[in-house]
Design brief:
Chain A: This is ABC transporter ATP-binding protein. The complex is a heterodimer of chains A (299) and B (141). With 299 residues, chain A is an alpha/beta fold. In chain A, 35% of the residues lie in helices and 28% in strands. Chain B is mainly alpha-helical. In chain B, 55% of the residues lie in helices and 7% in strands. The chains are: A alpha/beta (299), B mainly alpha (141).
Chain lengths: 299, 141
């Protein structure tokens, strides 16, 4: 199957400053994919390059196997930008009609139904909507064209918890119905844990780790136990984070094989703990971990 | 019908939490053979989670022989839990209650008992490598 997004050596420069540099990644299709990473890692730039709103300064990006700037590609891709650009003096109904004029395959009735269900009055001026309603309208506008791929940049960072839940409910119901691919950048890891099957951690333009969310959770453990026994654990598993006191050690590990944790208290790790630990250890990437593992195997 | 709840901080994958809740309801007799499980869309509408996660949980339960999908109709409970002999189970439950009373009389508190129990569990069921055996992983939590 064609990847939803594929980047090779992709970069974008503003003057002398690179917003994204040498980014190589592939995002699988028919999944909901979370894009996380510290501010300045290049998440927004990557999404803008993927919808053709920016042109690469280096490398290449392909979307649904094609050039993102090709009009045929654009009709199949939806985008919700972080600032949700909408015309404030339009009413909700006018905004939806505009969607119809701008998109060849537009489902006005569907978009109207979606908006009506969320108690957004059609006659209301967009400028008077609440943050949650604006987000819902921006989402309805992006979904109205029935995209195969939807890219969403920090959709809920400014919303209250209830509006956030509503946003994800609509988005996930749409995924259930259409099976579209979604790429979602967010700092809110609890939301991503519930919604994303695949997670990519971007750090300084590079992919620090990428993979199935359930596998990531299954492969990491937090161990608490005697400090003098820590070396044995650390010899076989990758230490993502470690804290020591005089006698006690707390280590988060990526499990590399059978785990003999006799005498240790073993806990699961939440996605939030996991991502924070990796962000604090940018030298640990899928690549460096694999290399280190190979070197450990006695020849 | 079962009403799913999620613990966002458990570090247990969402699909495992769903599967675990179905097994738990089966053990308590709250779900019985013939009962229908909610559709992926119904679960999504309530929990705002990824629909594929629900399907993954149902596939896991199907592999365990606890539920079955009827095309066009939905997913239904087909198995029962626990799997042991009812008489034997009752006997085990009695013995455990007896042991707990003895522990309490010996001055052990709730946490002391939990620590003992946890250690004995780990020794008996030999903690598997995470990721290697998901099923046992889910049972353990």
């Amino acid at each position: 199957m064609t990847d939803a997004v594929e980047a090779v050596g992709l970069g974008r420069r503003y003057g002398r400053k690179w917003a994204l540099q040498d980014c190589t990644l592939s995002l699988p299709s028919e999944r909901v994919i979370g894009l996380v990473g510290p501010n300045g890692a290049g998440k927004s730039t990557l999404l803008h390059l993927a919808v053709g709103l920016l042109q690469p300064s280096a490398g290449e990006v392909r979307v649904l196997g094609r050039d993102p700037r090709d009009p045929g590609t654009l009709a199949r891709v939806g985008f919700v930008a972080q600032d949700k650009p909408l015309y404030g003096h339009f009413t909700v109904a006018e905004t939806l009609r505009m969607g119809g004029w701008l998109n060849p395959a537009w489902e006005y009735k569907l978009a109207e139904k979606r908006v009506a269900r969320l108690d957004v009055p059609l006659t209301q001026k967009v400028g008077k909507l609440s943050g949650g309603q604006r987000s819902q309208l921006a989402l309805a506008l992006a979904l109205g064209k029935r995209p195969e791929l939807l890219l969403v940049d920090e959709p809920v960072s400014d919303l209250d918890p209830l509006a956030r839940r509503d946003f994800f409910r609509v988005l996930m119901e749409e995924v259930a119905e259409s099976g579209m691919t979604v790429v979602l950048s967010s700092h809110l890891l609890a939301d991503l844990e519930r919604t994303c099957e695949h997670l990519v951690l971007l750090s300084r333009s590079r992919v620090q780790f990428a993979g199935d969310t359930d596998d990531l959770l299954a492969r990491h453990r937090m161990l608490t136990g005697p400090r003098d026994a820590a070396a044995a654990i650390e010899a076989t598993h990758t230490v993502v984070q470690a804290d020591y006191t005089e006698r006690q050690a707390s280590v988060m590990i990526r499990v590399n094989g059978p785990l003999d944790a006799t005498g240790w208290q073993v806990r699961n790790v939440s996605l939030e703990d996991l991502v924070l630990a990796y962000m604090a250890a940018p030298h640990l990437t899928d690549d460096t971990i694999e290399t280190a593992k190979k070197e450990q195997v006695p020849s | 019908m079962i009403d799913f709840q999620l613990d966002g901080h458990s570090g247990v994958a969402t699909y495992l939490q769903l599967a675990q809740q179905v097994r738990h309801s089966l053990r308590l007799g709250l779900l019985r053979p013939g009962d229908k499980l909610p559709t992926a869309k119904e679960v999504v509408a309530k929990l705002a989670i990824n629909p594929n996660t629900v399907l993954k949980a149902y596939r896991e339960l199907e592999r365990e022989g606890l539920v079955g999908a009827r095309p066009g109709a939905g997913t239904f409970v087909t198995g029962t839990l626990p799997s042991g002999d009812p008489g034997e189970l009752e006997q085990l439950a009695r013995e455990l209650a007896q042991w707990l009373r003895a522990a309490r009389q010996a001055g052990l508190g709730r946490e002391d008992v939990e620590a003992l129990y946890g250690a004995a569990m780990r020794e008996t069921f030999q903690e598997p490598a995470p990721g290697a055996q998901r099923q046992t992983e889910a049972e353990k939590v």
